[in-house]
């Protein structure tokens, strides 16, 4: 079947999903305010121009009821359990009886999110990676009650998006973040212990391991507030320097300052 993709959220993951889905489907993206909608529309158009994707089939709205047009409705709001629970609770009131409900959470329990919707049979964790149009992996997490139809349709959607879907267990952080963030935090600990600066450690890790980003550039790219939240969920000790930067509002690339200076 041809799916209509509805997305709740207006940030980087939400807009990246909109551009990705627009290649194959009609898309509805819901933002909570007119200002957020304007920013989301600008971000979608910027990505689309760069990737040469036609996004005339993407409808950016502020009326929550419009999410009901989706046959797959994807929650892509901030990585906070209470915020996600509220948004999912709102989505279930407008979703059609056969609509799949998905969450892009990168670390929270899919079973708990699914049970909060009273529609666990058509719920799925759909953890995509930033930048969404470029990154191939999707971590798929199905709650115990997920129907075979939900599984098949979600797998088909990932295939249509030309993504590689790996079904992973519902454990905090799934696979990627469970392994990644202890490494990232260990880089911060090393910096504190040795006095090496962040750029030097990043240079060692990019040139020495062939990674496209060093740990500090990656932390700043993800967002230090998001990184802190993920660390708390997976039970990885948060380095004090990261705690301090978040408290100061230095959140990485999105704020212009984190471990590195992104203001220029």
From TrEMBL:
Single GO MF descriptor: NAD+ binding
Q: Name one GO biological process term.
A: fatty acid beta-oxidation
The UniProt keywords, alphabetically, are:
Oxidoreductase
The EC number(s) attached to this protein equal 1.1.1.157
Per UniProt, residues of the 3-hydroxyacyl-CoA dehydrogenase C-terminal domain are 173-262
Pathway assigned in UniProt: Lipid metabolism; butanoate metabolism
Per its UniProt record, what SUPFAM superfamilies does this chain match?
6-phosphogluconate dehydrogenase C-terminal domain-like, NAD(P)-binding Rossmann-fold domains
- Specify the signal sequence span: none
* Feature type site, description Important for catalytic activity: 127
Q: Which domain of life is it from?
A: Bacteria
* A family per Pfam: 3HCDH_N
**Domain 3-hydroxyacyl-CoA dehydrogenase NAD binding intervals:** 4-170
Task: Return the similarity comment.
Answer: Belongs to the 3-hydroxyacyl-CoA dehydrogenase family.
Q: What is this protein called?
A: 3-hydroxybutyryl-CoA dehydrogenase
Question: Which species is this UniProt entry from?
Answer: Patulibacter medicamentivorans
Source organism lineage? Bacteria, Bacillati, Actinomycetota, Thermoleophilia, Solirubrobacterales
């Amino acid at each position: 079947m041809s799916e209509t993709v509805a997305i709740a959220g207006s940030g980087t993951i939400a807009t990246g999903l909109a551009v990705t889905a627009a290649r194959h489907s009609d898309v509805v993206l819901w933002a909570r305010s007119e200002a957020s909608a304007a920013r989301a529309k600008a971000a979608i158009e910027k990505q689309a121009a760069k990737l040469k994707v036609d996004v005339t089939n993407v409808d950016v709205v502020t009326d929550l009821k419009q999410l009901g047009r989706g046959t797959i409705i994807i929650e892509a709001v901030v990585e906070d359990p209470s915020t996600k629970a509220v948004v999912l609770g709102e989505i279930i009131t407008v979703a059609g009886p056969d609509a799949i409900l998905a969450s892009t959470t990168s670390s929270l329990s899919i079973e708990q999110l699914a049970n909060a919707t009273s529609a666990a049979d058509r719920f799925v964790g759909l953890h995509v990676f930033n930048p969404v149009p470029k990154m191939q992996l999707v971590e798929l997490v199905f709650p115990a009650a997920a129907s075979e139809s939900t599984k098949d349709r979600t797998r088909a959607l990932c295939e249509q998006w030309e993504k590689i879907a790996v079904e992973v267990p519902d454990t905090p952080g799934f696979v990627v973040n469970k392994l990644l963030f202890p490494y990232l935090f260990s880089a911060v600990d090393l910096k504190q212990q040795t006095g090496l600066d962040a750029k030097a450690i990043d240079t060692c890790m990019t040139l020495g391991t062939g990674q496209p980003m060093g740990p500090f550039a990656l932390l700043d790219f993800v967002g230090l507030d998001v990184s802190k939240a993920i660390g708390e969920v997976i039970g990885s000790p948060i380095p004090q320097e990261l705690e301090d930067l978040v408290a100061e509002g230095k959140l990485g690339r999105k704020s212009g300052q984190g471990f590195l200076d992104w203001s220029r």
